[in-house]
Amino acid sequence: MFELRDITAGYDRREPVVRGACLTVAPGEAVGLLGPSGCGKSTLAKVAALLHRPAAGQVVIDGEPVNGWRHAAPRTLRTAVGVVFQQPRLSADPRLRLREVIAEPLRAVGRSRADAAARALETAEAVGLTGELLGRRPHEVSDGQLQRACLARALVLRPRWLVCDEMTAMLDASTTAALVNVVEDYRREHGAGLLAVGHDRVLLDRWCDRTVEWSRIAQA
């Protein structure tokens, strides 16, 4: 079970953008979090991805409370969660080639260069990236191609939980469908749980087992 318990968070402790948010995702379940721009759902997504420490509340992953954030989080918890953000150009190092972007998490946990390269290639193929594209840098590919690489980076460690924060907001309909299908194939194969954050009710309702409105999980 993935649990967000009474989370209060923001970048100014005096004016948090998230207050008392509670949400659970069961193993293998896809939960959509629906809310308007600026409501705080992306901040909550960063808390869920262990990238932002909340001011109050608790994140519990598979029964284990989270006490460290970013690199201070235990490796077993860091690698349990994969995350994809809305803007791939802000989340990918422009100096790296796509194969290196995808392999970043593998290198961070000490995989050998050869092992990381092989796993990165396998995951790239799963998200629809060709070998030729893997040699390019972010500025040399489209938003859709770069987002495929960012999704591959999120999946390369085979996490048990996925957080997709407006993953398809900048993409056309065909690329959106392709990436959603990749996530669903991964979930079916690995039994992963998904938190999909967005403002498109039609997409979330079609994609997820249930959709929760922001107003239902957080205080105004």
UniProtKB/TrEMBL annotation:
Start and end residues of each ABC transporter domain: 2-220
Pfam annotation, one family: ABC_tran
GO molecular function: ATP binding
Keywords: ATP-binding, Nucleotide-binding, Transport
Record keyword Transport present: yes
PROSITE patterns registered for this protein in UniProt: ABC_TRANSPORTER_2 (PS50893)
Segments forming a coiled coil: none
InterPro entries xrefs: AAA+_ATPase (IPR003593), ABC_transp_ATP-bind (IPR050319), ABC_transporter-like_ATP-bd (IPR003439), P-loop_NTPase (IPR027417)
Keyword Transport appears in the UniProt entry: yes
Family stated for the protein in its record: Belongs to the ABC transporter superfamily.
Cited PANTHER family: D,D-DIPEPTIDE TRANSPORT ATP-BINDING PROTEIN DDPF-RELATED, TRANSPORT ATP-BINDING PROTEIN
Protein name: ATP-binding cassette domain-containing protein
Gene source species: Streptomyces kurssanovii
